[in-house]
Amino acid sequence: MSEKDEPDRPLFLVVTIKPREDRLAEAEAQLQYMRQQTLTEPGCVFMHLVQPQDDPDSWVMLEMFRSRAAWDEHMRQPYNTEGNAILEDLLREPSELRLFDER
Fold it and tell me: How is 25-87 classified by DSSP, letter by letter?
């Protein structure tokens, strides 16, 4: 089994989010709701919504899950699937998702 396939390997995510200027409050409220729900999941280690100092028009969600399986389970949660559908109208473009493995 390769390191990449290890079931207990932590998974880190960086999600770049570009909210619509005219829907900032709605987008943030939706993201914060989804974040609060996610923090109750046993597989979620942390999730923070931050704003880059050099890019005031974007937000970034920094996430860590105990494993890829935990993140897969997270992605199936109704508040996540429904929340992502709601976000489609609140963002300028689809979010960029990057997955990372710990070295």
Answer: HHHHHHHHHHHHHHTTSTTEEEEEEE--TT-TT-EEEEEEES-HHHHHHHHTSHHHHHHHHHH
